[in-house]
Each structure stands twice: as C-alpha cells, then as structure tokens.
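agent> call fold_tool(seq_1)
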Amino acid sequence: MLNISIVIYTLDEKVLSSAMRSLIVSSKKLPPNLSIKKITLLDNGNNKKKLLSFIEKFTAFSLNIQYYSAGKNLGYGQAHNIAIDSSDTIYHLILNPDVIISPECLRIGLNYLEENNEVVVVSPSATDGENNIQYLAKSYPSLLVLLVRALNIRYLEKMFEEKVYNYELKEVIHNKKTAEVKIISGCFMLCKTKALHFVGGFDGRYFLYFEDFSLSIELQKIGKIIYLPDMKIIHFGGNTSRKGIKHICMFVSSMIKFFNRYGWKIF
C-alpha cells in the first residue's frame, strides 16, 4: 500500500483541491494491494481551521486524510519526516501541494517499483502550468550552474548553455528516456518506505532547499534512482530568484551546507 505526505505553508485551497482530485483519479487505477492507505497534510503555517474544513470536503471520496501540525514551521524536510517516520506501508510518496498527477501516474510508478528490486525511488516527467518542460532529474550540480540558474539572466544562460544542458539532463528528458539519475526534485518522490527509513528520511540540517538533493544522494547509496517519463505530472512551482531576498538567503545557506558535505564542484 501507499502513504502520501504533503507539506503546506501557504494554503491555496484551489491548487490543493486540484492536487487531491488528481490523486483520487489516479488511485482508481490501482489494484487493492497498491491503494492509498493514508494522506497526511503537514501544516507548517497557520492553516489548521482551513485545512480541517478542507479535509471534511474530501471525506466522501473514501480517502483517509489526516492533519498534523507541530505548531511551528519545521521546514520542508523535517515536516515530511513526521509522516515518513510513522509510515508503515511499502511505498511512500513525497508530494508538493502544487502538483497535479496524471491518471496513470501512480499505477505506472508503483508497478515499476514492484518489478525492480534494485530501484528505491522514481521521478516523473513534468511540465508547468503553461506546458513548459520542467527538469526534475539532474546530475550533480556545480556552483557555476546553480548561480546561472538562480540569477535567471538570459546572457549568462546562453554563455553556459552546455553546462546547464548537461546538469538538467536535457538529452534524457527531451528523448523521454527511462534512465538512472543522481538527483531528483522533492516535489514528487515515489519511494520504497524501507529505503527512506534506512537513510533516516530528510536531513534536518536543511530548512528549505537542497534537502531533496541530499536525500537523493543518500538513497543512491542503497539503490537506484530512476527517471520514469511515463509517469507524468504538472508542477506549478516557481523560480527561487523570483521569491525575494529571504528565499535567496535560504537557498545560498542550504547550498553551502550541501557542498560542504558532498563536495564542492565549481564548474
């Protein structure tokens, strides 16, 4: 069976409703042994009243939706760890509230994990709300590439186009190849729960940003990470550089922690 955790800071009920409805549709394609057991909504903001009301609206869909709040913002990874630590199903989906999954997404991903013992997590192909490709699977980052992408300056992107191309695995993604990769996005990580438990879930030293990079590397030590393009999602996530100075500072702080632990790559 499958447990799902969704961390929420700023609640957008319309977006979250779309995500939940896509889960309902996709769950109907699953056999009983792979069905959704529980969805945990982890509240990192002050959304209790609205989220409890939101959950009430979905009780008719036979989904077991639970609410959890520590009463403070734990950070992205630490909040997910609350659900991961108590997860007792074979599979666990780490999911953003701004993700809509395709009807066949869960069936394809779970079947792949069932049939491939060496695989510990799968990542989907993704587009944004305007049907632009998102590059969720990546190679190990360099400082140069991260800065070029964060600054979002066309001149720099053109100058270092090849390095960004290789980092974002564009050949793999454009050709829709199933492939083993090094790093995947935390907006959608369909995992084997025992692998998450073995590595201890997300590293609590990251409050926001790079916790998915770190988890990817830890999971890769015990199994394969697979980019699975037949799994499809729409992800409405935004660019860090457009979120203001606070987010940029958190990004840089987490980046330094990541490189200090796993090794600096400048170019």
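agent> call fold_tool(seq_2)
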Amino acid sequence: MSNLQDRIAQFRTMVTAEPDDDLGHYRLAQLYVEAADYPEAVKSFNEVLRITPHFSKAYQLLGDAHEKNLDNAGAIEVYTRGHAVAHERGDNMPRDAMAKALHKLGAPVPVLAEPETQDDGPETGFKCLRPMCLFGKKARPLGMPPLDGAMGQQILDTICAGCWDAWKKDFSVKVINELRLDLSAESGAAEYDKQMRDFFGFDETPVAS
C-alpha cells in the first residue's frame, strides 16, 4: 500500500470513529483529490458541509471535485450555493474563485445584495483576509510576526490577532490531537504547516522562508 493510501486509510478510520470530525473529513477529502478518487472526495466534502455548513472554502473544493468527476451540473449547483454563503460571510477569495468557476462553466453568477453591515476593518484600516474571520470591524493587527521567515510576515500582513489566537490556542491543538501528529517527524511538521495554511486560507504552496 502506498503512503497516500496509508494516509487515506488512517483518516477513514478516524472519521468512522468520530463521524462529526469536520477536520478529519476535510483532510480525507483532500487526500481523495490527491489520489484522483473524485467520487469519494465529493462524499467527504459533503460531510464537511454537513457538519460546518458555513465553510465557504469547502464549497469551492467540492465544486472542483464535481468538475474533476465530470459532473458539471453538480459543480454549478455547489458553486452557486457556496458563492452565496461566501458572500454573506465576507469570504471574498472563495467567493471570487467560485464566481470565476461559474463563468468558466457558462453558468450565471448570482448578483447578490451587499450585506447590510460592511466589515471594513477598524479605524486602522486593517482587514483580516482569512476566510471565515469572525472579527470584522473588531479585527486588530498583530504587533509583530508570530513566526520566523516569510510565513510569519504573511500572517502579520493579512491575518488579525483574533484569528491567530484562534489557531494558536485552539485549532492547532485540535490539529495535533485529532490528526495524531508527531511534530518531531518531517511528515508531521509538513502536515501541521499544511493545516495552518488551510486555516488561514493561504495558497497550497508554502511561502519561501
């Protein structure tokens, strides 16, 4: 069995034991995409949205999995729903990506009213760019890079202190415990970094150090 198939088996066991583990389903779906098993990826992304229906990035990835499974009708339906969810939450990056995907598929891009309350950031002008940031106008910048290297600078420039605290004090612990990561191993450290990039909505490619 390949390493990828080993990882898939690990996460399938995990979500079977804990069916409401959205993080486990999300990572399993990503692994299915990596293995080009798009029907199973669709099932796993649907499980993520069952548990966390406001997860706009999951709509984007689910629509992409439908496309890769040659199900354009399914992709259009998901992108249309996800576009509305992302717009309502102010998650501009996944919203714009789904609008572009709808346009590419020849489907109409919904014209949606602006949310009544615009989260333009605090008086400092800082706007947290993390999809699913809950702080809106209360977002405040970090005072210094929380990590060394380019990743730390990227977080300083684009992520609010509240989202960093949510990662550091809560979600990173969940990642280590639920994914059973050994951070002393190269594979464990790489998985941790991937989960951090996903949490902040960064590109899949790590920034250079």
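agent> summarizing second result for user.
The domain at 1-116 is CATH 1.25.40.10 (Serine Threonine Protein Phosphatase 5, Tetratricopeptide repeat). The longest helix spans residues 72-89.
agent> awaiting next instruction.
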